[in-house]
Structure formats: structure tokens, C-alpha cells
Design a protein that fits this description.
homodimer; alpha/beta; Amidase signature (AS) enzymes; eleven-stranded mixed beta sheet; 18 helices; 37% helix; Amidase_dom (chains A, B); AS_sf (chains A, B); EC 3.5.1.4 (chains A, B)
């Protein structure tokens, strides 16, 4: 078979396990771009399905534990909504209804029999990025060559989630090679943005972004090596957390650039609320993941750090906003989102100062050098068996000349790679000092507590135009935890184009020129809250403070 | 100047800061091999000097804090003994008497003025392996090319130790390139073993081993990438701890293979007691080193883990002894040391089972592949400026054909290195499973609590014959913490050669053949206690249990 035939056959069987009645006949036409609220109108979803799928993770868990809702009911509701989301945005890869419902049934029986939940995530449906292996199910990662090779073992995170009582129920779409900030591959095709289907959902965890935005999953697990959790979170208006290296177990997942150990891809959660993010971390840490993955740091959830003991107990924090990175100035909606955040934090009694960028471009360059050191050989190896092409453009028109985000090079020697590592080490040391040196400017007696920065210099752009990791990649290089938080949405009346004469670079000018408010209408506006390495608990707590400040501020204005 | 002239001039000025009265005139002749007790006879050391230098770290700190002994007195006593050690074994590199005494004087004044100690290590002299940079002092690392280039900044560990009140007072010798388990370089020459100067002190932290064995320093800091703390600790009969990656800050030290981030060199303490080891960790962690070195894990000293809550509160532990690694069977004294340890632990009421080796050779091979990936280019770069030769043999006769421990190769590509990393990742995962699988054999309901293994297949051998990292390197690859503990000494009457017919390899046979009890007379016998990744506190606690069991057992037998 040709690679096209293999891909077509895989795609043709994608919905085989889905009951026919879950497939809506009242779907919007392809011309309907804004589909974010469609699930509420869909004939497939009952009032109870809507109530369940629009509940917070905390209420889902409490209603599951009290048996108000069965795991079968909750799984069914989310599955139905996920299938609607799939039909709207093409966000799923593997769908295994019987298996997930059987698991839910077993959980219900356990609870009935013992009166006890299986664990902290009892009955909670969880979506998983396609990389996360489940025994017996394909982990193609969008490579045609990997179709029909079901995983022989569960990934460690899957085992942990199951041991906590979760119900993994779908796998989600991603770009071929993962190293792309949009979501497009030769097996499952392209995922679109439910806020505006002419825009990209971002990548690489783009299936998660679109699915969770449509409330087709209460909690998803993505991965981030250069922005792959935060970019789709930002573009799809959901919460998403890129934790530090080696806190969430990656063992047993498939991946690109395996053995590239310099800038580690990390797993992290996406959800519609911070409560989902926090629940995920507390639950996973409670299972002592270092006993199952030797890379994982031996450290439990710290309530002390969550209570911000290193940040004045959270009473008066100092946030620093990086308005732009001296490379590419963000579009007006991003600026407005940052201003809204600043005002909300000031209104809540916190300090807000400006973050001074430090060698941002140099830090990103290091990351690109590392990833390209052996990338081409890696991609070739994965595509060679079927001869499928390596996707170099993410434009809608595959014949058009379009910018490619994905790095490629002829490769370097190990010794050259070591020299890049030295630069990385020095830059990490310098950035730490740069942060420490803010102590005199904060008025709190501490250095800046958290940085707030854009996630991209724009909201979700049209397909094929997401071509930069400039606001995300630096944090993977420095290994700072960063949590994406939605702020508001693009409003052409507010987000007008402003005249600008001076530019940092050709990319900066080009980015300025492509902006027009109409194209980006309705796109979510987000930002990220950034902490020090290993400070997951504190970043979650500080994000809760920012999120609550924004909620109050928006309610007043 | 030629490299020989540069080296000779450096060496000629090594003792410039030392008062003439500290240089003994009653030194033993070069033919005297056993010099371990010589300091007690030396006319240089007063009774008080002996009392001070033979005190434990705990009593030193308590007598310093109570002002029974001044920091100047304690520093002077250790300095005098260190200079004796230098004359006996050539264990030092940089000596800076005025500077250290001025520091001690300032500490004394602070205590007098405020009634408070500066920190947990107030007044404690500390020796530092030559890699550990001190502003204004050379960090040659034994490279002629680096002579006369004083460090521009302190290393982070130096700053932390000073902030704790310690008095860094000497730097210690090491092999050129560091990647050698003996101690020999073109600048400072060879360090010998004070238990028997015809034997090697081991390496790479060999200067620390010899100095601390002679009680010329109460606490030293070495580094370990393949055994470099544990080997000299074992050969010189002192305690030495190789912790997990990224717990003790390495930032600002000089190093070999900089940018080789796959198997990290780590800093760790050497001391004459476990109390010194524990004091070091508690003190360093209390200074939150992650605020100063971005690589460091954000985790304080855990009393919970030290109290062995994950090990049944330490009541009944199960140790597993790896008698040999199925590569090279250790010499009879090592076997006797392990048997003594087993009997001591059984007598103390613990379980002892056999550890089954698992792919030990494969794990070591991975490490060698990684280090050689760019090593030759690295060594060339460091030696080229003066043209000094790269030392390839550590034999006494530099013209003799002798085995070289140091790996070398033409280098590999980054992509090939990534493939090695994949194997490493898989082996780490398999070894974790191998360890977990012992749960059914221990009788405690837990997997094995700690492994006990040889540190080398022999006690300190004659110079030039230390040519294997087979019992240490695997732990750097797996990132398991391992603490070297002295057991006893070679006794030719007990450690007789036994007939053996079958061998695992040519190296195994060769190792068998070189043994004869007389050559190794008086050499210390040691072993290492090995825990899980990140389990520093528990390994210290379990080592205390082993050490105490041995003490009691030896007192009874």
C-alpha cells in the first residue's frame, strides 16, 4: 500500500467504535467559522450532558464520588461532546468507546461494592495527546509509518492516571514531528480552532486545545518542548501548564528527537479551569511517580510552596510584565490583554512592574541549535518506511511557499552540541541573576514573584501563519514553569491597528503588517504566568491569584 | 616558556605562603611506604594540633561555637597537618595561608562581637578539589595551559560554604582531564596513598582522599562523574558521598567535557566520619542553592526521608550485596569486607540478600560512549595553548606500555549521541524495574532498601594499575546516590589468594592474576551503600546504620 492508502484506511475507521446516535446530523456548514457554542445547540447532547460537560473538575469529582453521577454517565456525556468536537474541528486521533465505557463501568461497580472511590480522579474522563501510549492502541503521532503498530505497554502517566481512577477516553491530534506550533499530519489531517475555524488551534498539543475549548474533555494531557501546551492553550482560550523538567513522568510515551536530552519535552495538563490543573498535579505527585520513572524528581506536592511561603504568603506579590521581547512586538489584542491583567492585579493590591528582556533571542537560538543537531536524521527515520513526505509547510495550500517553523539542518557533532550546552548553561545562570537583581525594584523585599508575558506575538492566526516560538521557547530553554491563562477575546472595536514606524527586525515589521482586527475576530487573548525552576506549586497558586483578580476586574468594568 | 618551565615555576612557588616552621625536618624517607600515622610523630604538630585535627566535625563545630577553640587556632592546626600531608603524599595544589587565616580571624571577631556564629559551619576548615574556583586563585585543574589565570569569580559552592562560616584553606590535586581514577598531572605531579605510598590514592579526587586520610582536613569537597569521589575514598579509607545529579551546586567550577550534559559530574563531600557528610548536606541545602544555580533541584533537607519513612522507619532494613558484577570478580580483601558487612548487618537484626547484577557491562559501555563522544576535542582544546602532552598512561614509567583508563575516540555526531541516550533511558527504566521486582525477596514488604557493592575489584593497587570504573560508573549512569564506607584493612594472613578456574573475561583473569596479599598490605577495604535517585537523606541514614553495625561487630569479634 502507498502511504496515502494507509492513511486513508486509518482515517476511514476512526469512528468505528462510535454509536451512530452520537454523530449529529445538524452540524454547521464548513463556512460557519465560529463553532465554539455549537455543542449547546447540538441535538446529540441532552440537558444532563450539557450540565455534566460544563461542570468544573471539582464538581465532577464530587458528584462522581457521591454517586450523583455515575462514571458511565460522565464518560458518555464527555464522549458525546468530544465526538461533536471531532466533527467540528478534527481534534481526535484514537477513539475507543467500548474500552472507556467498560473502564467506567468497572469504576462504578467498585464504588458500589466498596463505598470507596478508586482514587483522587475517580471517574474523571481524561483526554491524552496521541504520544501517550495505551497498550493495544496505536501511538502513530501522525506518522503514516507508525499506523497499525499498537503500543505494547502503557506509558507511566497512563498507568498512574488509571490507578487514580481516571477514564482515559480519547487521544488527540498533533503535528507530524511534533515540532510545529500548528496541528497537521498526513494521517489525521488538520485541526482547526473552534473560536474561528479559519484560524489555527496552535500546536503541537492542538487537538487538546480544540477539544477542551469545546468542553469535550474536562482535563487533558499535552506535552511542551517549545510552547506545545501553552500555544494551543492560548489560541483556544484554555488553561495549560508547562511544568519544569522531570516532574511529570514521560516514560513510555512516543516522541520526536528521542535521546535529545538537552531541552526536555515535558507533559502537562490542559483544562477549562485552574482547579483542573491543580487537581492533576496533586493527584500525580501523590502516586510517587519517581518510583515508576527514574527521571522524576523525588518531591511530593508541597502545600508550603502552594501557600507561597517563599512569596510573602501571597499577601502582596510583585508581578513583572514583559510587554514585548525586543524581537517581535505583539499585536494590539495581546497588549490589551496584558494591560487588563496589570489593572486587575493593581486593583487587587499587588505590585506590577515592567520586565526587562534579557538576551531573549540568544536563548531561543540555543534551543533551535539543539533541536536541529540531529532532527533531520530523526524525521527521516520515522518517515522512511512508507516514504510519506516530511511536512515542511503548514500552509493550507501545500504548494504555496510558506514559512516553516520546523528547524532543520544537516546535523552537528557531539562536541559542537556540547559547546551549545555551555552557552545554555551560562545563559541560565545569567538569567537567574537577572531575576535576582530585581529585588531592589519590587517594593516587596523579594525579587519579582512571577513574570507575565505573551505566549505568542498574536492571537491565533490564520492557518499556516504560526511561525514563531519566540515567546515560549525561551522558557523551555531556561526550564521555567509557565501557565497559560485566558484573559478575554479579540474585539475589533477595541483592538484597532496603531501606527508604528520603528521595528526590531524584519519579522517584527512583517508581524505588524499582517495585523487587521477583522481576521482575528473572536480569537482568545491569553498570557502566561512564569515562575522559577521547580516552582510548580507556587506558579499554580500565583496563577489562581491572577485569575481571580481578572475575574473580579472584568465583573466590575 | 615551554610547558615544562611553566609547570616547574608554578610548583616552585607552591609553598610560598607557608610559614617555614610548618615545614617539618623530620619527614620519613621516600622508602617509607606506610606514612598514615606519621603526623602524630611530626615535630610540627603540638598536642593541641593533634587534638583538634583528630576531632569529629561535630566536636569541632561545637568547640568553635563555644569559643573553646578559635577559628584561627583550628585553621592553623589543620593547615599545619595539611602541609605535613602535602610533604608526604603531594596532595595539594593551591595553598593560601594568609587569606585563610584572615578569614578565620574575621570569623573570630564576628563571634566575639555578636555572640553569634556566622553559620552552621562557623570556623570549619574545608579543603576543595582544584576544580572549585575561588576568585583570585588559579583553577588549573592540572593543565599547564591554565596556569596563571586566576578565577574571576567564586564558584557557587564556595560562596555558600563561606556564607555558612566555613574556612576554605587548600585546594587539592587531581588528574589531568579529571577522567582518570588515579591522580597525576603535568603541573603538580602524582599524589600517593598514605596507607602505602607505593599504591595509588585513586582519583580523580585523589588529593582529597590522601589529605583527609591523613586528617589534614576535616571535610573536603570532591567531584564524581564515574567514581571520582568514591574511588579515592575507598583507596584512602575515608567516607565519601556521590549524590544524585543537581543537588549540590556545580556552577562556577571548572571542569572537563563542559557541555557534556548526559552524565553529570556532581560535587560531594569526603570526611573521616558520616557526621561530616551529613553536616555538609544539611548546611548546603539550608542555603537554598537553587536560588544560586539554576540546575539545582528545589528541595530542602528532608528529615522525613532521613528518618527513613519510606524504609519502614529504619527498624528492619533489607540490604542486598552485589558480591561481584559478572564482569570482574573482586580480590579476596574486598570479598572479606563484604562478608564482614553482611555479618555485621545480620547481627544488628537486618535482612541481607544477594543482589543480582543486571546488564552491568552494558550500562558502563553507555557511559564510555557518552564521554568519548567529544572528549578528544575537549582535551586537545585544553592542552593546545602550551603544547603540553595529553597524559595517556598513568604508570610510573611514562614510557612503559600501560593500560589507560581514559576513554578516547574520534567523536560522534549529535544524532548518534541521541541514540546512546535512548539506550541509557531504557536501561535506567529497566534497572528501576529490576530493583522494584525484589519486593518478593526481602521479607520486609518493600523492595531492597539499599544495595551494597564494591567500589573497585581491588583495594588501592600500585600506581598505574587502576584501570577500571566497572564498580562505580554504572551508578553515575543510573544516577543512584552512593556512599563509600571504610570497613577494615588488608591483612595478608586473612586475605590469601584462592584458586580459581573460571573467569568472566580476560580482564577478570588478569585481575585475578595480579593479586598477591603482600603488595596490598595495609590498604583500606571499603564498600558503597547505594540508594534510589534523589534519596540522599535516606542513603546517609542507612549508611549510619551500616557504619554503626560494623563498629559494634568489630568491637565484638
Amino acid at each position: 500500500m502507498t502511504w496515502q492508502q494507509i492513511a486513508a484506511e486509518k482515517k476511514a475507521h476512526q469512528l468505528d467504535s462510535v454509536p451512530k446516535e452520537w454523530l449529529g446530523s445538524d452540524l454547521p456548514s464548513a463556512e460557519t467559522l465560529i463553532v465554539i457554542d455549537f455543542p449547546r445547540e447540538s441535538s446529540v447532547l441532552s440537558a444532563l450532558d450539557l450540565e455534566i460537560t460544563e461542570s468544573s473538575v471539582a464538581s465532577l469529582l464530587s458528584n462522581l464520588a457521591s454517586s450523583k453521577w455515575s462514571a458511565v454517565q460522565v464518560t458518555t456525556s464527555f464522549y458525546k461532546r468530544a465526538i461533536v468536537a471531532q466533527q467540528l474541528t478534527n481534534c481526535l486521533t484514537e477513539i475507543f468507546v467500548e474500552r472507556a465505557l467498560a473502564r467506567a463501568q468497572a469504576l462504578d461497580e467498585h464504588l458500589k461494592r466498596t463505598g470507596q472511590v478508586v482514587g483522587a480522579l475517580h471517574g474523571l474522563p481524561i483526554s491524552l495527546k496521541d504520544q501517550i501510549s495505551i497498550k493495544g492502541i496505536d501511538s502513530t503521532m501522525g506518522y503514516v509509518s507508525w499506523v497499525g503498530q499498537p503500543a505494547e505497554k502503557n506509558s507511566v502517566i497512563f498507568d498512574i492516571l488509571e490507578s487514580l481512577g481516571a477514564v482515559p477516553f480519547v487521544k488527540t491530534n498533533l503535528p507530524q514531528t511534533l515540532l510545529s506550533p500548528e496541528t497537521f499530519n498526513n494521517v489525521f489531517g488538520r485541526t482547526t480552532n473552534p473560536y474561528n475555524r479559519s484560524l489555527t488551534c496552535g500546536g503541537s498539543s492542538g487537538g487538546e486545545g480544540a477539544l477542551i475549548a469545546l468542553k469535550g474533555s474536562p482535563l487533558g494531557v499535552g506535552s511542551d518542548i517549545g510552547g506545545s501546551i501553552r500555544i494551543p492553550s492560548a489560541f483556544c482560550g484554555v488553561y495549560g501548564f508547562r511544568p519544569s523538567y522531570n516532574r511529570i513522568p514521560y516514560a513510555g510515551c512516543v516522541n520526536s528527537l528521542e535521546g535529545q536530552d538537552s531541552i526536555l519535552s515535558v507533559l502537562g495538563p490542559l483544562s477549562n479551569s485552574l482547579d483542573g490543573i491543580k487537581t492533576f498535579f496533586k493527584a500525580v505527585f501523590s502516586k510517587e511517580p519517581w518510583q515508576k520513572d527514574p527521571m522524576i524528581i523525588r518531591k511530593r506536592w508541597s502545600d508550603e510552596e502552594y501557600n507561597l511561603i517563599h512569596h510573602g504568603n501571597g499577601k502582596k506579590l510583585c508581578f513583572a510584565i514583559m510587554w514585548h521581547n525586543e524581537e517581535i512586538v505583539p499585536h494590539p489584542p495581546i497588549r490589551r490583554g496584558l494591560e487588563m491583567t496589570k489593572n486587575a492585579l493593581l486593583a487587587a493590591g499587588h505590585e506590577v512592574i515592567d520586565w526587562v528582556p534579557y538576551k531573549q533571542a540568544e536563548i531561543s537560538t540555543i534551543a533551535v541549535s539543539i533541536m536541529t543537531a540531529g532532527a533531520t536524521e530523526d524525521f527521516m527515520k520515522a518517515t522512511a518506511p512508507t516514504g510519506e513526505p516530511i511536512i515542511t509547510s503548514i500552509a493550507l495550500d501545500q504548494n504555496a511557499e510558506a514559512p516553516s517553523f520546523r528547524p532543520s539542518s544537516a546535523g552537528t557533532s557531539a562536541f559542537e552540541l556540547w559547546q551549545v550546552h555551555k552557552k545554555k548553561r551560562d545563559l541560565r545562570q545569567e538569567y537567574l541573576q537577572h531575576w535576582e537583581d530585581t529585588v531592589g525594584k519590587t517594593g516587596t523585599g523579594r525579587p519579582v514573584d512571577a513574570i507575565i508575558s505573551p505566549i505568542a506575538p498574536f492571537t491565533a492566526p490564520p492557518h499556516g501563519l504560526m511561525n514563531t516560538g519566540t515567546y515560549t521557547l525561551w522558557l523551555n530553554t531556561l526550564d521555567y514553569p509557565a501557565l497559560a491563562i485566558p484573559v478575554t477575546k479579540v474585539d475589533p472595536a477595541l483592538d484597532v491597528k496603531q501606527p508604528r514606524e520603528e521595528f526590531y527586525s524584519a519579522e517584527d515589521r512583517q508581524n505588524y503588517e499582517i495585523y487587521n482586527p477583522a481576521t482575528y475576530e473572536n480569537a482568545p487573548i491569553s498570557m502566561q504566568v512564569i515562575g522559577r525552576g521547580g516552582e510548580e506549586e507556587a506558579v499554580i497558586a500565583m496563577s489562581e491569584i491572577v485569575d481571580e483578580a481578572l475575574r473580579r476586574y472584568k465583573a466590575q468594568v
